[in-house]
Design goal:
Radius of gyration: 13 Å
Order of helices and strands: HHH
Largest sheet: none
Distance between the termini: 23 Å
Number of strands: 0
Number of helices: 3
Structural class: mainly alpha
Length: 57
């Protein structure tokens, strides 16, 4: 049985999701060259937005 205190791998914590997104934007060559984020950054941003929504519920 899983404890409710530990997030599942499918649902990253809010802090981890934000950190992953910011780190990607900082080090991705494609994101650095263009003002618009790359597809991977968009996916990470969606994960962050979903984690934010889950935290507010």
């Amino acid at each position: 049985m899983q404890s409710s205190n530990h997030p599942t791998p499918a649902a990253p914590s809010l802090d981890q999701a934000r950190e992953d997104y910011e780190t990607h934007r900082r080090y991705c060559r494609q994101c650095a060259l263009n003002a618009s984020p790359c597809p991977a950054a968009k996916h990470l941003r969606r994960l962050y937005n979903n984690a934010t929504r889950s935290a507010t519920r």
